[in-house]
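Known limitations

Files may contain more than one protein. Parsers should not assume a single record per file. Below, a two-record file is shown to illustrate correct handling: read the sequence, read the C-alpha cell line, then continue until end of file.
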Amino acid sequence: MTSSSATGPRPLPGRDGPPERRAALAVAGVVAVVALSVAGALARPAAADVPAAPASATQASAVAPGHTTSVTVRVEGMAFSPSRIEVPAGDDLRITVQNDGDQRHDLVLANGTGTGLIAPGDRATVDVGTVTSSLDGWCSLPGHRQMGMTLEVVTTGSTDPAAERPPAPADAPSDVPTMARLQDAARHSPAYPAALPPAPTGTEHDYTFTVTEQVQQVTPRVSRAVWTYNGTSPGPMLRGHVGDTFRVTLVNHGSMGHSVDFHAGELAPDEPMRTIEPGQSLTYTFTADRAGIWMYHCSTAPISQHIANGMFGAVVIDPAGLDPVDEEYVLVQSEQYLGANGAPADPAKVATGIPDIVTFNGRAFQYDAHPLTARVGDRVRIWVLDAGPDASWSFHVVGAQFDTVWTEGRYSVRDGRATDGSASGPTGAQVLPLLAAQGGFVELTVTEPGHYAIVNHQMSLAEKGAHGVLEVTR
C-alpha cells in the first residue's frame, strides 16, 4: 500500500451518532472522493503514450507474504536515481520515492501500481507487489518520461530466462539519449574551454589543422563518429585584429576527402577550399579585412554532413575600439543527427533539419555541469556563433539583459543606448537572434549572485542540449 508524508485520516465527526447520521456521512464521503478523483483527472491528463497514474496508493495491488526488497529512489532534476534497480525474482518490491526536484512528480509502474503525485521535498512509497519479471517505470506527467524520467526494474536469479532483463544494449539509431542521460554524460566529461584568450601579438599567424576521424561517446551507451580539425569539435578558436594575415596548413589524416572554408577571408574558393584526399595537404592564406566572429567549416559535399559530423570552428576578429571586459567567452552552437551507434550522422535526419541533440561547443549541457563563471559587478562579453548546419539560435541569458549587442558588422545597442538614435533613454536587448553561420557578441553586467541559464530560447532546442549556466559569485 502506498504511503506519503501526510498525516493519517482524522476521525469523522459524529461517528458515534445515530445510524441515520452515520449513513448520511458515509454517502457524503463517497460523493466527495468521486468528485476529487474526477477533478484530479481533469486537471492533469495522462501522457498520451502511457497508462494514467493510479488515483491513489490504495489502488496498489496487495503484496503476497514473503521476502521484501525495499529501495529508495530519488528524483534529481528530470531523472530517477538510481534509474535501474535489481530485485530477486519472486520478491515483493517496495519503492520509496524521495522528490528532491523542484516540481511535482510521480512514479508509475507497468503493472499499474504507482505513488500518486509527490510534492517537492516529500516522499511516497509504493508496494509494487511480487515481482516475477522485469518491468518499467516512469513519471506520467506530460513530457517527463520523454525527458528521461524512467526506471528499470530488473529481476535476478530467475530460472526463466525471459523474466530477467540483461543490461541495456547500445541504443538503436532511433533511441535518442534523454536529457537526463546527456546531463549525466556532461558531468563525467571535461568541458571544451569556453574562455577566449586575448588576440596574439603580431600581425601574422601560422596554424596547422590536422583532419582526423574518431569515435566520440555521447553517453556511455551512445557513440558517434566525428570528423575534426585537430581532434576537437569545434576546432581551434582563432583570434586576431583587422588586417592580420592567417596561414593555415590543412593536413588530411582522415579516410576520405576533406577541405576547409574560412569565412573570415575573401578569395576565390577554387584552390584554397578544394577537397584534398587522405595523405595530402594544402596551405590556405587569407587576410582578415573585417571584424566579426567568422565561421570556418569543411566545404566538401555534402557540406551539411561534414558540418554535422563536427568539422567547424570560429575566427574572432576584434572590432576597433573594443572595450575591456572582466570575462570573455565564446560559444558555438551546432546540431547532431545520430546515426547507427558509432557511425556518422544520419544523412536522412540531416536532410530534415530536425536534430537529435543541440550543443554549445560540441557537447550537450556541458556548461550546466561545468558553468561559466563571473563575479558580481563583472563586465562579461560572450561571443556567439551559429555553426548549424540548419537550426537558428535565439541567444538569451535568463535573468539578465544585454546592454551591448554587436552582430554582423555593427552595434545595435552600446552601453545601454540605441546606436541609431531611435531611443533617447536607456535600452537593451533580451536576445541576439542568429541564423546558421551568423555570429556576434553581447555584453552584460550581473548585479546579483546566482545561476543564470544560457539558452537557445527556441526552448525545444534548449531541452535537446543548447543550455548552459553562468555562475555568478560575490
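...continuing to the second record:
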Amino acid sequence: MSNEYDVVVVGGGPAGYPCAIRAAQLGFKTACIDAWLNRDNTPAFGGTCLNAGCIPSKALLESSELYHRMQHEAAAHGIGAGKLALDIAKMQARKDAVSKQLTGGIKQLFAANKVTGLQGYGKLLGNGQVEFTSHDGKTETLKAKHIVIATGSEPVNLKIAPFDGERIVDSWGALDFSEVPKTLGVIGAGVIGVELGSVWNRLGAKTVILEALPTFLPMVDQQIAKESLRHFTKQGLDIRLGAKVLSAKAGKKNVTVEYEIGGEKKTETFDKLIVAVGRRPYTKDLGADVAGVALDERGFVKVDAHYKTSAPGVYAVGDVIGGAMLAHKGIEEGVALAEQLAGHHTQVNYNAVPSVIYTMPEVAWVGLSEEQAKEKGHEVKIGTGPFAANGRAKAMEQAAGSIKIIADAKSDRILGVHMVGPYVSELLAEAVLALEFAATCEDIALTMHGHPTLSENFHEAVLLVDGRAVHAVNKVKK
C-alpha cells in the first residue's frame, strides 16, 4: 500500500475520525492514526469519548438512574419491586459492551468511506511527513499534503493527589470500580466530578465532592446552578464549595484527604478518591517542536480561525486547541476543517455550543447566562418555566427543575437558554437551533409544541418572558 496521502489525521477521537471520514467523502486519500489501547491492550478508535469518557459514563449513569428510580419512584407508580439486587459486574459488562459496539462501528465507517485506519503512534517529522509506529513496533513514514493534529486531552494529574490507579483514580478509573465504595471523595465539582459522583452516590456510596471555587457551576446561569445544587444535595451528594485540597495520601485500605475550608483545615478519609479537576492537551511525543508547530503557555496547539498551525500544511482540531473540551465541538471542527480543505466555505458557531451534565435531573445550557448577558451590556428580559407545571413531567414523576430563557429586551432575540430537569439534554437541541437561526422569543412563541411533552416547557418559558403564558403564573422580570 502506498504511504502517500492527501490527508493524514493523527488522533482517532471525536475530532479526528469524523475529520478523516469527511475528508475521504470529499475525495481525499485519507489515513487516520490512533494510539488508544484499552485495559486489555486491545486497540480501538473513538478516543477517550467512546472508550473512557462520554459513552461508558452515560451507560453507568443510565444504569444507576434506573436503580435509583426503582428505589425512590416505583412505589409512586404503584409498582412494588421488593428488595433490589445490584450486580456491579453485569453493569460494568454492559457498559463495556456499549463502548465496543460503537468503537467497532468506526472501523466499519472507515471501511465504507475508504479511510485507512492505522492503530499505533503518529509523530510529526516536518516537511509533510508523519512517522507511524504500530503497536507491534513496526515503523514507516507517511507523506501527506495536509496533516491534522487531533490528539485530544488527558486528565490533569495533581501533584498533591497523584493517581495510583487503585485508591486515587482519574475519570477512567472511576468508571471501572468492581464494587461500590462505602465512602467516596471527589476533587472537583465540574461536569465530570458531578456526573461520576452521581453514579456512585445513587448506587450507595456516601459521596463528598470538594470544590475549590466558592460558586457551584460558575459557567451555568446562577439561578439554574443554585437550583441544581439543591436537587443534588437533596439526593445525598455532599458538595462542599470553597474547599481547597492540600494533600491526599493513599494507604492500603483508604485515602486520607486534607483540605482547607473557611480558613479551617480539615481531614476526611475515603475508600476511593476521584480527581476530576479538568483536562490538559495531549501532545506527548507528537514532534510539534520538530515540525515547527507552536504551542501556547498551557500546551495547546496554536491555530488561526481556519485551524492552521504555525507549520505549513499542518492543522489542529478538538481538545488539543482548547476552548470547550466537548466531543461535539471536536466533531464540528473536524468536519469543518475537512470541508475547508476541499474549498468549501464553512465555520463553527462558537456562540451556540451546547453543554450537558448527565445527572438526574440533567443540567443543560447554550449561549449566555443572565450574568454574562448583562456583563456584555444587554438589557435582558427573563422567563423561567418550572417543570412542576408540566403534565408530562408530572406523569413521569420527574417534575423537578426549570427552563430559563435569557433574551435581549430591545431586539427580542434569544441570547441563552439554561435548564435543569428531566431529559433537558434532548430539549437543548431546540435552544441551539434557536440561537443558530437568531430566533426571537416571538418566533418560538408562534411555534406549536406537542401536548403533553417536556418540550412544552420550553415554549412556556418563552411565553413567560413577555408575560404571555396561559399555563403558568406570569412574573415578568426585566
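Parsers that stop after the first record will miss the second one. For reference, the second record is described as follows. The first strand starts at residue 4 and ends at 10.
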